Amino acid sequence: VGHPSDRGSYGVYEKPILDVANSFKSGIINGTGMSLNSVLEKVCEDRPVVVWVSMNMAMPYISTSWIHRASGSRISWMANEHALVVIGYNNSQVIVADSLNGSVRYYDKGVFENRYNTFGKRAIYY
Q1: Are 82 and 97 in contact, with CB atoms under 8 Å apart?
Q2: Half-sphere exposure of 36 (CA within 13 A, CB side)
């Protein structure tokens, strides 16, 4: 909701992206729950994987929460949420294409895995 750089805006996780992606090309796979090693295995198969982490690997935190009207459950929103495309890796780094600034970036594998796990191991691929 809103523009990603505006205060008070929110992003989405994998389910809405899957719906949109499958409207253009069927067969997009929800890989949510995969370990980072499994994500990297897909990348070795020349299958880029979209994952949810934090912008610039910033420390995520719960910025707000609300009660879901239908279920009554509490929903917490993690600040700094961001989706990246994993395109490669080496022994110590994960290599991503980052739409935030249109660049290829290298992140420490341990920090990347921590952020990936914190955001629920959310991933999609084709």
Answers
A1: no
A2: 22
CA-based Rg of the chain, rounded to a whole angstrom? 15
Closest CA to 12 of 50, 67, 52: 52
Residue 86 and residue 79: Cα distance in Å, rounded? 21
Q: What six digits make up the tokens of 11?
A: 């992003």
Whether this prediction's pTM lies above 0.85 is answered by yes
Which has the closest alpha carbon to 89: 40, 29, 123?
A: 40
> Which pLDDT tens digits describe the chain residue by residue (126 residues)?
666 667 767 778 899 999 999 999 999 999 999 999 999 999 999 999 999 999 999 999 998 888 989 999 998 888 889 999 999 999 999 999 999 889 999 999 999 999 999 999 999 999
Tally of CB atoms within 10 A around 95: 17
Q: Where are the beta strands (DSSP E) in 1-126?
A: 29-30, 49-54, 62-67, 74-78, 81-89, 93-98, 103-108, 123-125
Structure tokens at 56: 């610039």
**Residue 10: what residue type?**
Y
Residue 50 · residue 85 · CB < 8 Å = yes
